[in-house]
Amino acid sequence: MKPLYLIIFSFFLSIVSGFSQPGQVMTEPLKRPTELPIQIRLWELCNAANSNDPEKLDQIISRHRINMRNDGKVNVKIIHPRNRQVSPTGIFSDHSIEIFREDPEQTSIYVHPKQLIALAQKLPEGYVLYQEIQADPLNEGPTPQVHNSASYSAGSAPGGTGIKIAIIDVGFNGLQNAIANGRAPANYDSTDFSSTGVLNGSTHGVAVIETVFDHAPNAQYFIYKVVNSTQCASAIDLAVSDDVDIINMSLGYRGLGWEDDDNSLCTATNSAADAGILVFVSSGNSKKMHWQGNFSDNDNDNWHGWSGNNELNTFILQDTTSISCGCTWDPSQNTDYNIYITNSQGTQILDSDEMTGTAFESVNFQNTAGFAITVAIAVKKISGPDVEFEIQCSTSGVGSSVVNDQLNFRVAAGSITWPAACSADNVIGVAAVDRPDFNNPSGVSGISTVYSSEGPTNEGRQGVDITGATVTTIGGGGQFFGTSCSSPNAAGAAAALWSSQPNLNADNLRYLLFRKAQIYKDWGTPGLDYIYGWGGLYLHDYIVNTKYVDRLVNNPSGFSSRVFQNVDDAFNAVPNPPAEGAVILFGNDYPSPYTPINYLMNKNVLLKTLGGESTLGNN
């Protein structure tokens, strides 16, 4: 319960609010209850545990989505200072601390809630105790025809044979039923990083695996359950050890920092991508739940004005629904911002994260009023010069809707989430277009879903690389939507194609996917853009022993692990009769020294072109 003085103050402000400027914060932030380097919610959690108040303890854990194991320990992290990226392991033995994962940026630990304050007291200067960043499933399969992958599973086609696929998600509840009905692989390897049981909790991962499976039923599957970014990084490391070819993560993380790769999740993601794994990641559902720009304070009260002097970015929060928001900012000037959730008039603070020593904060609030209410996001500058910052929000619960949820002040550009923002080339951020719109040809604009996150990243990288279909069908006739759906549709179609091109490495398989998207479904601005990437992922019909040739690639030696540069190398790679095959040319001039009629007479080869006519020379 709030202190009495705050209740009286809020009531007084509600009476006189008609005389104040609309859209302004009319209450001062609560005084931070401790100067220790610990997040307020963890400080409150420790106090509740030490006062033997299980009801308060459960409320804090539920409200802030804090991960607690069956043994009563909670998963938190110690954030390292930027100039000293080592773990403070010397203080752990006094508090029965269990290290889950150590990275240069942070150390993830399990500790009993009663020990949190004592731990914070012993942290060296610059270290901060913070909640683990929770995974946001980017919405709660697929018909392969929309990506033209159906022929890759028909008859004797490979259908994903030889491809290992890892699904990293927050839960696989209902997987056994999906298997019993032929919608998911009967055999799979599984690992639970959450300590809550792979087949317990959310059903989200089942929709994802069904979506991939519909494109690549003969692939080998690995499923990993995670609930936060550190567990996700560990799952990615295991996927590398398991020698997978493709990873799908229909998950998004907010508040990991400002720079694209300045977090342990991107360290693991980039490492996997650089090891030759194609990592498909949902771009995010934040197009209408994101704001980014420079801090503005026209009235010099240290509160950001979203538009003029309007300091309240309002949002309609449905009943039995939670909103979570992350705030990150440019750390180069040592600026400190605080983020708040307030009531609609700005007279009552509903949640705050008045942390120091980090360039990110997070807040959340659950509506239990019994009806929809309006809340507001506010940002206050505590110290330092004005620097660019961004807000990214999401909802969960009964009234959550990626279609309808929106901040009053919002910016679509830059709404990409992690790990789609990670920098490695083989990290493929997947945007979403509704299935009925996916049939549109190149040149069409305005068909991106209302929620699909857009690039660029904070450091100007692409973020969105390709587009997949959403609102596709899963078991029982339901519909799967969000970029949670578009990513596994893209990953599954990629697995189908890769199984038909087993000699290609990841870089060249990615090249084929992007090249075909540009030819078949280059939506929006011609070429690569921040909304659709290269365009909608779409495959050429499956033909056994197909070889691709593109004059634009660098493969003069005819390596089979790459797309061929010369036509004669491609023809030579097609097996001799009675085997059949195809050579598909991307439109261009090919003055390679060969005689087409000799190849066509001596081999059962179908010659086709994509993306325009090809001129074949004999010089």
Explain this structure.
By secondary structure, the chain is of the alpha/beta class. Helix content is about 20%, strand content about 25%. It contains 12 helices and 28 strands.
Tell me the layout of helices and strands.
Elements: H1 4-16, H2 40-50, H3 54-63, E1 74-79, E2 98-102, E3 106-111, H4 116-122, E4 128-131, E5 136-137, E6 164-169, H5 175-180, E7 188-192, H6 204-215, E8 220-225, H7 229-241, E9 246-249, E10 251-252, H8 264-274, E11 278-282, E12 290-294, E13 313-317, E14 321-329, E15 336-343, E16 349-352, E17 360-367, E18 373-383, E19 388-397, E20 427-434, E21 466-470, E22 472-473, E23 479-480, H9 483-500, H10 506-520, E24 546-549, H11 567-573, E25 580-586, E26 589-590, H12 596-602, E27 604-610, E28 615-616
Parallel strand pairs: 6-8, 6-9, 7-8, 9-11, 11-20, 20-21, 24-25, 25-27, 26-28
Antiparallel strand pairs: 1-3, 1-4, 2-3, 5-10, 12-19, 13-18, 14-17, 14-19, 15-16, 15-18, 22-23
Helix pairs in contact: 2-3, 6-9, 7-8
What does this entry show, briefly?
By secondary structure, the protein is α/β, with parallel strands linked by helices. The chain is 21% helix and 24% strand.
